[in-house]
Amino acid sequence: MLTPRTGRQALQRALASTPSSTVILPGFLVPAFQTPTARNFSATTQRPSKLGRTPLSVPPGVELAISEPFIKKDMTSYLKTSKRRITVTGPLGTLDLEIPEYVNVNHDAAARRVELSVKDRNERNQREMWGTTWSYLNNYIMGVSEGHTAVLRLVGIGYRATVEARPEQEEYPGQQFVCLKLGFSHPVEMGLPKGMRASAPQPTRVLLEGIDKEQIMQFAAKIRRWRVPEPYKGKGIFINDETIKLKQKKIK
């Protein structure tokens, strides 16, 4: 018995050897012998980035400075790429953001607004970096003007947290240390990165403050690794409004 593919090939060879004037195909077989045309995976049109095309407002007291393009080696591909640096200065500090050269920054100092665009919207990589650059720049502007915070909640019997000083372990003058009691035989002590502040308004709460949101959330994730929330008793370290779905106890 012929398979559908071999049967179709045999029929095509038979039709090729038969004069075209005597070939009559039923209507339901005509689409199968037509030359297939290439079609796109998606029929929708490419849209610009919803975040990237939204203007950013610069609050009073915040200044932006855009440098000239410079060459930098990519640490992942070791290729030399062209970059530009945006320096965001505000009342709380200064942050530097490196952006690709194909991301255009239109800074209107009089209207205090920033608009981002890319050179070629048809390039997928440029469309991806469009919204990513907008998000980073928005976080930097908010960080130097208002600051970012993260709240750690310790849920568990005997879980406690304090913020203390350890002069003999300081990496820089005035460094704070978050000391945690999480049920281990020893307390966990973690030094804060430079530019961050911490406080413990309650024994089971830790408040992290700083201007760099990425740095704050990264340090919060390091603390969370010591007691990742577990789904049976709901114990662990939770960041901000993090919740988990509890499971029923396993019964043999």
Helix and strand string, N-terminal first?
A: HEEEEEEEHEEEEEEHE
Number of strands: 14
Top-tier CATH class of the largest domain: Alpha Beta
Roughly what percent helix? 10-25%
Number of domains: 2
- Structural class comes to alpha+beta
Q: Provide the CATH topology of the largest domain.
A: Outer Surface Protein A, domain 3
Using only C-alpha atoms, the radius of gyration works out to: 30 Å
Low-confidence stretches: none
Report the portion of residues in β strands. Answer: 25-35%
Which architecture of the largest domain per CATH? Answer: Alpha-Beta Complex
CATH superfamily of the largest domain: Ribosomal protein L6
The N- to C-terminal Cα distance equals: 54 Å
Mean of the pLDDT scores? 86
General shape: flat
What is the tally of helical segments?
3
Largest beta-sheet details: 4 strands, antiparallel
Protein name: Large ribosomal subunit protein uL6m
Main location: mitochondrion
Keywords: Mitochondrion, Ribonucleoprotein, Ribosomal protein
Family: Belongs to the universal ribosomal protein uL6 family.
Offer a quick outline of the entry.
The protein is an alpha+beta fold. The protein has helices spanning 4-17, 124-145, 213-224, and strands at residues 56-57, 63-66, 70-73, 80-90, 93-100, 103-108, 113-118, 148-155, 160-165, 176-181, 188-191, 197-202, 205-210, 236-239.
Main attributes?
single chain, 252 residues, alpha+beta, Outer Surface Protein A, domain 3, 2 domains, 4-stranded antiparallel β-sheet, 3 helices, ribonucleoprotein
